[in-house]
Write a structure and sequence with these properties.
Elements lengths: L3 E8 L4 H19 L4 E9 L2 E9 L6 H15 L2 E2 L2 E2 L4 E8 L2 H7 L13 E8 L8 H19 L5 E14 L2 E14 L5 H15 L11 E3 L9 H4 L2 E2 L4 H4 L20 H18 L5 E8 L8 E5 L11 H8 L4 H8 L33 H7 L4
Parallel strand pairs: 3-6, 9-10
Antiparallel strand pairs: 1-8, 2-3, 2-11, 4-5, 7-12, 8-9, 12-13
Helix pairs in contact: 1-2, 4-5, 8-10
């Protein structure tokens, strides 16, 4: 179909699952900050005034149990939870983290002539398109934008009536394959008990209108704000949260496949994370170089094996160069082994807590190396490899 509607959703940093992603990634950062070669796989569960940490690590003893608890509380405080049912200072933190399995370490470690292997088997996808300036699908891009705008207003004090927990959903009309307007917008946001639904609607409205392109706003009947009528109890007090439950929110909003593995709580030896970043990096550069208008890249790995088992590329009929040649060129420009990815994108840094909300992709590269997979530094080499100006 060339004419259709498509919907994507986003969830805020205060959503129960995103609270858990943030805590898990803050712990990854604590270990990588102490030793860039730490191994971390940490899961978080959050419910009413209770946080449970579990997983496996191999890192310096300087990251103590007390520090992990402090990192956990700091993450919750930064999100903004000081509520009776979930409070950064009052919640119980239960730490069940233990040492990494020696069997897993054996497969991943570089030993003798064996290079560092993938931390697990799996398939990873990267995607890019020309629908937005960030080379992201438009529905997820604007869904994230609405919630980031609301969060900035809450943190700045401009919208003190709002709480940390929120969700958005954007439905766009596509004509001849291109997004043209919103047909429905849904925003549910936690609010104070003394704020009525009409007031919440008017607080939310400018954040939607200002994020969407001019003229894209849907009709009033299709603008849904807190459809249940009340959203006072939110966050982990209202709904149990778990790390890794929002993988489609984290990636492309359903507009492209996802390999199934979550990102948060994992150090960059885990290809669930690092190879998905590499695939996005390559796909974005392919599109930005003018080789295609849309690009999907799949990588696959086996645990303990250093090279990808397969590299698949689909440009959806928009390619201007040979798809048969493209994988070889990409592999020449970037070593897709776990070590090669980590070194090329400089992933052994404490840069992950910031990725835990509003998407891992479509963000601006940061001076300290955050979102390095969003760089466009392969545009020139790619164009040159195919003789394009």
């Amino acid at each position: 179909m060339r004419d259709y509607v498509f919907t994507s959703e986003s969830v805020s940093e205060g959503h129960p699952d995103k609270v858990c992603d943030r805590i898990s990634d803050a712990i990854v950062d604590a270990y990588l900050g102490a030793d860039p070669y730490s191994r971390v796989a940490v899961e978080t569960l959050a419910t009413t005034n209770h946080v449970v940490l579990a997983g496996e690590v191999r890192g310096p003893a300087s990251v103590t149990r007390d520090e992990i608890e402090a990192v956990t509380r700091s993450a919750v405080r930064d999100i903004g939870y000081e509520q009776e049912g979930f409070h950064w200072k009052k919640a119980k933190v239960e730490n069940l983290i233990h040492a990494q399995s020696a069997d897993i370490a054996r497969g991943v470690d570089a030993i003798g002539n064996k290079d560092e292997g993938a931390g697990d088997q799996g398939i990873m996808f990267g995607y890019a398109c020309r629908e937005t300036e960030a080379f992201m699908p438009a529905p997820i891009y604007y869904a994230h934008g609405i919630l980031r705008s609301l969060a900035e207003a809450r943190h700045s004090g401009a919208a003190p009536q709002l709480g940390p927990d929120a969700k958005s959903q954007v439905t766009l009309q596509y004509v001849n394959g291109k997004p043209e307007r919103a047909t429905a917008i849904v925003v549910s946001t936690q609010h104070g008990a003394d704020v009525d639904q009409d007031a919440v609607r008017e607080i939310v409205r400018p954040h939607v209108v200002n994020v969407l392109p001019k003229g894209w706003m849907c009709g009033e009947a299709d603008f849904y704000v807190n459809p249940t009528g009340r959203f006072v109890i939110g966050g982990p007090d209202g709904d149990c949260g778990l790390t890794g439950r929002k993988i489609i929110v984290d990636t492309y909003g359903g507009a492209a496949p996802h390999g199934g593995g979550a990102f948060s709580g994992k150090d960059p030896t885990k290809v669930d994370r690092s190879a998905a970043y590499a695939a996005r990096y390559l796909a974005k550069n392919v599109v930005a170089a003018g080789l295609a208008d849309r690009c999907l890249i799949q990588l696959s790995y086996a645990i303990g094996v250093s090279h990808p088992i397969s590299v698949y590329i689909d440009t959806y009929g928009t390619g201007r160069v040979s798809e048969e040649k493209l994988p070889g060129v990409l592999c020449e420009l970037m070593d897709l082994s776990p070590r090669g990815i980590r070194e090329h994108l400089a992933l052994n840094r404490p840069i992950y807590a910031r990725t835990a909300a509003y998407g891992h992709f479509g963000r601006a590269p940061e001076p300290d190396g955050g979102f390095s997979w969003e760089r466009l530094d392969l545009v020139g080499p790619l164009a040159g490899a195919f003789g394009l100006s």
